[in-house]
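We both want to read discrete structure tokens more fluently, so let's practise on a single case. Once you have written the record down, we can walk along the chain together.
***
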Amino acid sequence: MAEQICAHLKAIQQIKQPHRRVCEECEKVGGKWVHLRTCQTCGHTLCCDSSPARHASAHARASGHPVIASAEIGERWLYCYPDEETVSY
């Protein structure tokens, strides 16, 4: 049986990569981050939920942009916030 993935993840045609490996919001205020995620709608790179500010999930809630990709070197996965699904690419 083929694996079913959500429509948000299926809609991703090309993976947006980070322009720089920094959390754009933490950088503005001198904050620290643990891991980085890149929004697949607008391309912003922000910190993960293990980071103090949790900018990536806050961005997803505020903007309605559903899918992020890990911006960590060697990681190749996407995550959909509304459907709580992860898929490797």
Notes: The chain is about 20% helix and 20% strand. The longest strand covers residues 36-39.
